[in-house]
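Example record used in the benchmark description.
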Amino acid sequence: MKLAVIGTGYVGLTTGACLADTGNEVICHDIDRAKIEGLLEGRVPFYEPGLAAMVSRNHAEGRLSFTTSLDEALASTQVCFIAVGTPPDGDGAADLSAVLDAARGIGQAMQGPLCVAVKSTVPVGTCERVHELVSTALAARGANLPHDTVSNPEFLKEGQAIDDFMWPDRIIVGASTEQGASLMRSVYDPFVRSGRPLLSMDLRSAEMTKYASNVMLATRISLVNELAQICDKVGADIMHVRAGMGSDTRIGMAFLYPGIGYGGSCFPKDVLALSRLALQADVPAGLLDAVDRVNRHQKMLLANRVVATFGGRVRGLSFALWGLAFKPDTDDVREAPALAIIKRLTDAGASIRAYDPEAIPTARQVLGRNDLVTFAEGPYEAASGADALLIATEWRPFRKPDFWRLRRLLKAPVIFDGRNLYEPHEMRELGFTYHCIGRAAR
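Model output (structure tokens):
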């Protein structure tokens, strides 16, 4: 099939590469000329395991191409995916400007029958607006070209995006016509042969499914983090509690990991966007607001504990920070807890020497010029001479460090672990003062 993808960000580029890898002819479009030129030269603008190799292979073999011309992208195309960003606007609602601009552009450039598949995360009713804008642009041209609009939300986890696309839990297709639904079934046939379901539904239910899924996962994270705070106060161990509750088949263990909150481009904005949508629909959203409030508090937990441990006086102290990305296997620092930690401690006059296997370049861009933040070439270089070590991201290399080397490098053997990587009793035996999340019974 001949397919187009508008937007070469995380979702768009992954979608294009995976669809090309199954034999389709895919052209990816972006208005950012520098990004397209980089892709044509083999540079992927973000880190995702396996993606650069997949992009390079499919580009070399002629199945994947890149352009800034929408006319070129839509020539002979059967399905066009909209995969542009929908960041939060000033009040937390989704900013749809890029999606709606893409819809207008499609209507102005399409040259034959086309199915427009909205993969961006959008509020309920957006696909209908997209359809109307395409129709309006066609009418302005005097063109009478048949077109369908479908909702096809993505469910990709950063760090595991290729596996999630190639072997999905499910594929959601919202359509108002059987023709649109049938065409999408043809696109996804190679991905559901293992028996995973392709669920067809109406447009609005498909749009809502994306928000509902992300909000459920965010709720589980905030719940286990609030339980961890209670465990700290009452002398229980959240890891034991997690095992006990997660063994219930009605609950399960997924996304019940206590820590310092969720980040990234999806959960924070989707919780806020659904809360604003509920407000517009005159539906109380107390639970959604609480999920967001708990997460914001949790992000500050580790930094506040550091300040309290040092008697409220951290000015002039130096702290090592392991992890800048919001999760491992990505360079994405959007809404990362590490950034909240850095801000809290540098505002109080402390300095930070940070290390992350992938996210230092993106963190530099976000943090700008902060003289109290420096970056190390490795984890032990970050720890050398620090007053304590803080862990904000659970990268695999951090799970089994050389603790004896750490003890020699740190001014004092103190670790604040925001991801519960280690066993408290083992750390005590090694001579560390070990602060973790929700494990007071240690």
